[in-house]
Amino acid sequence: MGSLNINGRAVTVQAEPDMPLLWVLRCELGMTGTKFGCGVGICGACTVHLDGDASLACKTLMSDLHGQKITTIEGLQGAEAQALKAAWLDLDVVQCGYCQSAQLMAACALLRHKPAPTDADIDAALSHIVCRCGTYPRVRAAIHQAAAKRRPV
Ligand code: FES
Ligand code: FES
């Protein structure tokens, strides 16, 4: 049992120390926006933010959490998130959608750290997130579009 800070709210959970955050989110709290892909840290589908950094929820145990601010796709807000969501819609990025919450979480963390990312920056930040539908070119284009909208003219 412990207390987590999720999307700006203090939440008490019953999970044991060796329970991965992904299970806590999806199974205990019913927050299914964060996806289960592989469960072993190789697909990226479970990406959330811990104190603003993109992190894998399947590789984060309850015992790793010591008050970090956890943000999931359900609570993703702010100027970068808004710009990304608009670009995602504008460029029709999504196909089946399964990987897309992770793509958005990683993209948002990237834009907050690097407001004008290069293709190489995008690949470095997102290449671990597997998209079986092959939306990578549209994800990249949408990040560039969102970044351009965020830059002062
Ligand atoms: S479910 Fe976490 S990396 Fe695949
Ligand atoms: S949109 Fe289908 S897996 Fe990425």
Automatic annotation (TrEMBL):
Matching entries from InterPro entries are given as:
2Fe-2S-bd, 2Fe-2S-bd_dom_sf, 2Fe-2S_ferredoxin-like_sf, 2Fe-2S_ferredoxin-type, 2Fe2S_fd_BS, Beta-grasp_dom_sf, Diverse_Oxidoreductases
Which GO MF term does the entry hold, naming one? Answer: 2 iron, 2 sulfur cluster binding
Query: What SUPFAM superfamilies does the record point to?
Result: 2Fe-2S ferredoxin-like (SSF54292), CO dehydrogenase ISP C-domain like (SSF47741)
Q: What is this enzyme's EC? A: 1.3.99.16
Q: Which keywords does this chain's UniProt record carry?
A: 2Fe-2S, Iron, Iron-sulfur, Metal-binding, Oxidoreductase
Annotated 2Fe-2S ferredoxin-type domain ranges read 1-76
Which intervals of the chain form a coiled coil?
none
Checking Pfam families in the record gives:
Fer2, Fer2_2
> Which PANTHER family does this chain map to?
BLR6218 PROTEIN (PTHR44379:SF2), OXIDOREDUCTASE WITH IRON-SULFUR SUBUNIT (PTHR44379)
The entry's protein name is: Isoquinoline 1-oxidoreductase subunit alpha
* Gene from which the chain derives: iorA
